[in-house]
UniProtKB/TrEMBL annotation:
Record-linked Pfam families: FCD
Domain GntR C-terminal: residue ranges: 19-130
Official protein name in the record: GntR C-terminal domain-containing protein
Transcription keyword on record: yes
This protein's record includes keyword Ribosomal protein: no
Classification via Gene3D superfamilies: GntR ligand-binding domain-like (1.20.120.530)
Key words, A-Z: DNA-binding, Transcription, Transcription regulation
Single Gene Ontology MF annotation: DNA binding
InterPro entries, sorted: GntR_C, TF_FadR/GntR_C
Length: 160
């Protein structure tokens, strides 16, 4: 993905995706169905945000889902690393969600990932996760290109 010079993703970006693949493996290995069942709560909140296009509400529920992933992996070091990385990467993730239809695609991807975790099918989880990564990066690139084509000031706060 070739982003315009001013928009290069932080070097940590691929690390976050790889870190989550490790977490998915740990979740499947731990096989704690009670915790995996709790993922549905956050999926429902994500879904509830879609009809009104509430990107912030969706984003917040999605981040809680990610925190549940790390909680289910029982690894405080990985959780701390994720939280630290997300401080830099959250604006990029948020921008990719703001692209038309991204919320719907994202929800479908997360539902597939959670279904794979419930089925203990690591290969399908990772495959879907990597597809999600590619789609999110494509959406982010389109958001950036669109912004470059529209004259005027940048929006100062993505999280409003």
């Amino acid at each position: 993905m070739d982003f315009p010079q001013a928009y290069h993703l932080p070097a940590e970006h691929p690390l976050v995706y790889h870190l989550e693949e490790i977490v998915f493996k740990k979740i499947i290995d731990a096989a704690e169905t009670e915790i995996i069942g709790q993922f549905d709560v956050w999926l429902e909140q994500m879904e509830a945000a879609i009809p009104d296009g509430k990107v912030k509400k969706y984003f917040d529920a999605m981040e809680k889902l990610h925190m549940k992933f790390f909680e289910a992996a029982h690894n405080a070091v990985m959780l701390d690393l994720y939280e630290s990385l997300m401080k830099r990467l959250a604006p990029f993730r948020y921008m990719s969600l703001s692209f038309p239809n991204s919320l719907q695609h994202s929800l479908r991807e997360y539902k597939d990932i959670v279904a794979g975790l419930k089925a203990k099918d690591y290969a399908s989880v990772v495959n879907r996760w990597r597809q999600k990564q590619k789609r999110a990066l494509d959406a982010l690139e389109k958001v950036i290109v669109r912004q470059e084509q529209q004259p005027g000031p940048l929006k100062p706060n993505l999280f409003k």
